[in-house]
Every structure is written in structure tokens, then in C-alpha cells.
Amino acid sequence: MRTELLTDALSYEEHPLYERIISDILDQGYSICDSFFEEPTVNSLREEIKTLYRHSELKKAGIGNKLNESVEKSIRGDYIQWIDEQKANAVEKGFFDRINAFKNYLNKTCFMGLLHQEFHYAVYPKGTFYKKHIDTFQNDDRRKLSLVCYLNDDSWKTSNGGELVLYPEGLPEVVVHPLPGRVVIFESQRLEHEVKAVIQDKRLSITGWLKTR
Q1: Which residue, 1, 39, 141, 149, is the most exposed by fewest CB within 10 angstroms?
Q2: Which of 118, 81, 122, 99 is nearest to 212 (CA)?
Q3: Residues 16-40: tens digit of each pLDDT
Q4: What are the pLDDT digits (tens) for 123-157?
Q5: What does the alpha-carbon distance between residue 40 and residue 31 come to, in Å, rounded to a whole number?
Q6: What is the DSSP string of 189-205?
């Protein structure tokens, strides 16, 4: 019985995209991917976040975790809404199906022990930003991988700002423009990063974390 369980845990079909992401993270602490989600999923999520924002369903984001959270406009300016996976609509369910497949692959191939995930919609209106920080807390170190999926459409211009800037230790900074469907995955406990001020339009995304325990 134990042998069968071990064989099941180790059996998997190699996924080229996931393998590339794993290799990137091992080499440099982050990976940038423009084909993680299918285009129809990105388009539907974009309409979902636009509807939520239009109906004022998103709330001003705070800093810290839920046990120690405060709103500080001088540090971050985005508006968010957490996504409850148990209450997800059809569009969000497709998003979580992909996330769970990736999480399970990481657990089978890298033995990361990822058990949970948390994600929220995020809108950065013109003039907002998020100063340099790291995605972990003094009282909670469960976040292992951070993931951002950009939901802007093809009309988004790089001159609009809102870039994600990664600061890998010992390497040059990496500037990531929020292009439609682009996904960035990086180590939550190692990589400092910031969101530059949005100069025009609104920066749309889903942001979240893969967590242990």
C-alpha cells in the first residue's frame, strides 16, 4: 500500500511550461510567462474586474496581514477584492483550476508542501503605486511563491506606467510591464519588489500567493 502511494506521488507527466518556470525560479528567483492562462480566461477575468470596480466592489488595500493590517496611502494605493475559491464563479473557477494544477505539479516535482492559496483582484488607478516591499510577514511566513496575472487589454501602453520592478539579490533590477495575460511568479520571502506609479489609465491584475501549512 505504501509503495503504491509513493508511486502515485512520484508519477506525473512532464509539463514544459511548468518546468521552464521552475528552472527560472531556481536560477534567478522569478519567472515571467506570457502564456500561463489561455486568452479567453484572461478576457473573462478582465470583464469581471472591470464590473467589480465599476460597481465599487473593490476596497482600499491595507498593509500587513489580516492580524495586523492598516491602510497607508503613502505606501500603496490599490483597490482589491479577495476571491473566495469556494464561492468562485465559472470564470474564477477556471483560474483556480490552472493554479491548482500548477501547485500540484510543484508539490510532485519539487516537494514544496504547498497546501493553500489566496488571491485577490487589484486595480491601481492613475497616480497609485506600491513602494518596495517583500511578500512575507513577521508573524506569518507561509507565503512561498507570489503570482501576478495582468488583466489589461491590448490598448495598454508601456508609457502608462504601473511597472512591477523586481530586485533580485546581486542582479540588476528587472522591469515588468503589465501586458495582457502576462504572469510573473517569484519567491515571496526573498525578492523585494515594487509597483511604479500608474501615469495613465488603470492597472488591472489578480495577485496572490501559494502557501504552506
Answers
A1: 1
A2: 118
A3: 999 999 999 999 999 999 999 999 9
A4: 999 999 999 999 987 668 899 999 999 999 999 99
A5: 22
A6: TT-EEEEPPB-SS-EEE
